[in-house]
């Protein structure tokens, strides 16, 4: 590769990585939003998780259509279509906030997530393919680091805008003034997100020639319909195993994140404790209101450190993946995450709050490594495998509902047994990957993706 080509590929990779930041920021707003709608609309834990369900269900509905779109078009039109759909979702969210309608919130989240689904189907394999195939794990993990930067900022902003004065403990009353303030916060957040996405769309359109010049066009033979892609994906047992792994990983990560604020705010964890405020960076970010214990808004800000742990973990993981085989690192991280969930379940108390927040550190490399391990071993095409893996993100819709039911009938700490089982299964996936040889590819991945 010439110096000029190398610079072009690097620039294209940097542009695509900007997209990772945007969807990370938007996705992480779901965590404070679940806590907010529980108070605004007086919902149960299970009903509040409908917000997460509406968002992540889009992956189950839209991933294969997105893969078919990617197979027919170059990445640029696909990504521009995705960004346009995200703008439409934000506009529906603005209407939902102004009309105070929970059903419109669910519709807006579904449309917004549909755009993000298309974006991920196009951007994940593209980031992995832009450069030396030997470093695909590192590249995708590094892109996911910027995704994590977005997920760190999102809960801080969301808690500040959505959760001021909101309390959801038994007997708590949300006044009309507090409800109006929370709805105004939702309106403000999605107004600015709409503007951010519009600016990003313009930036990507202006940069289209840089990205287009970094890879060859998709061969005509690769242009297939949804049915063909689905059949291709399900013809590979490893693609299906990878799909199950993504389902469990995303389900566990989202279930922990969406209930984290409620978990930390509970009296059994930090509700009556000021211990978190004694931790320098964490305490400063939470911003004590002077009232003993951790309020829901303070707990919502602490959720940023769950996602921030993933950001730090991906930076560390990017370095470790240059020295340690991907499947070995995945096995280690999933085993530790399972053990941490079991600690929260079995021990509980104030220390369980710190342990739960730290799980994000070990979630860090799971998605990119599962994704690339599956692409390497799947006998299906890259676009079909990518479509199945992104469909499997629907786990983020299903498992939070299950965790919501468990927490309603027992406690937030008890509900951690569900993600513990998910991480244990992911450890088995990593061990299986160590025994499965990679599939030879007749064409470079970058060619198959365009």
Which helices and strands, and how do they pair?
Elements: H1 3-28, H2 30-40, H3 45-48, H4 50-72, H5 75-99, H6 102-129, H7 136-162, H8 176-206, H9 208-212, H10 226-234, H11 237-265, H12 280-286, H13 296-320, H14 326-346, H15 350-363, H16 366-377, H17 382-391, H18 395-409, H19 417-435, H20 445-448
Structure report:
The chain is mainly α and 450 residues long. The protein has 20 helices and no strands. The longest helix is centred in the middle third of the chain and has 31 residues. The C terminus is likely disordered.
The gist of it:
The chain is mainly alpha-helical and 450 residues long.
Assess the beta-strand content as a share of residues: under 5%
Q: Given the structure, what is the number of helices?
A: 20
Give the CA-based shape: globular
Q: Termini separation (Å)?
A: 19 Å
Spatial extent as radius of gyration: 21 Å
Mean of residue pLDDT values: 86
Largest sheet: none
The structural class is: mainly alpha
How many strand segments?
Answer: 0
Low-confidence stretches are 215-221, 442-450
The run of helices and strands is HHHHHHHHHHHHHHHHHHHH
Helix share of residues? over 70%
Quaternary status: single chain
């Amino acid at each position: 590769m010439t110096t000029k080509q190398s610079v072009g590929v690097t620039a294209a990779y940097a542009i695509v990585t900007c997209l990772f930041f945007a969807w990370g920021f938007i996705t992480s707003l779901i965590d404070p939003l679940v806590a907010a709608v529980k108070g605004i609309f007086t919902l149960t834990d299970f009903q509040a998780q409908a917000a997460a369900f509406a968002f992540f269900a889009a992956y189950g509905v839209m991933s294969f259509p997105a893969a078919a779109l990617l197979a027919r078009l170059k990445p640029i039109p696909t990504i521009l279509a995705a960004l346009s759909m995200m703008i439409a979702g934000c506009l529906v969210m603005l209407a939902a906030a102004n009309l105070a309608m929970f059903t419109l919130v669910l519709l807006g989240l579904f449309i917004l997530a549909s755009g993000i689904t298309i974006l991920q189907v196009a951007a994940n394999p593209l980031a992995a393919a832009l450069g030396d195939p030997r470093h695909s794990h590192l590249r995708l993990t590094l892109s996911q680091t910027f995704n994590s930067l977005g997920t760190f900022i999102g809960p801080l902003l969301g808690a500040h805008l959505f959760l001021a004065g909101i309390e959801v403990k038994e007997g708590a009353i949300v006044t009309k003034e507090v409800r109006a303030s929370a709805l105004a916060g939702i309106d403000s957040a999605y107004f600015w997100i709409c503007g951010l996405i519009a600016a990003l769309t313009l930036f990507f359109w202006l940069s289209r020639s840089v990205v287009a010049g970094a890879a060859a066009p998709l061969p005509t033979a690769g242009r297939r319909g949804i049915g063909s892609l689905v059949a291709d994906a399900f013809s590979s047992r490893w693609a299906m195993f990878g799909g199950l792994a993504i389902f469990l990983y995303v389900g566990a990560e989202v279930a922990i994140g969406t209930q984290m604020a409620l978990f930390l705010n509970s009296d059994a964890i930090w509700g009556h404790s000021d211990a978190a405020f004694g931790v320098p960076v964490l305490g400063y970010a939470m911003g004590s209101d002077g009232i003993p214990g951790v309020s829901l808004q303070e707990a919502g800000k602490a959720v940023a450190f769950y996602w921030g742990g993933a950001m730090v973990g991906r930076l560390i993981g990017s370095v470790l993946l240059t020295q340690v085989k991907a499947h070995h690192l995945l096995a280690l991280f999933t085993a530790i995450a399972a053990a941490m969930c079991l600690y929260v379940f079995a021990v509980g108390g104030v220390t369980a709050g710190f342990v739960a927040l730290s799980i994000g550190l070990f979630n860090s490399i799971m998605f990119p490594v599962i994704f690339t391990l599956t692409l390497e071993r799947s006998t299906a095409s890259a676009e079909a495998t990518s479509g199945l893996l992104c469909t499997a993100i629907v786990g983020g819709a299903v498992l939070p509902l299950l965790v919501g039911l468990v927490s309603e009938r027992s406690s937030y700490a008890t509900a951690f047994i569900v993600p513990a089982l998910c991480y244990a299964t992911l450890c088995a996936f990593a061990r299986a990957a160590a025994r499965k040889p990679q599939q030879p590819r007749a064409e470079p991945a970058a060619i198959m993706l365009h």
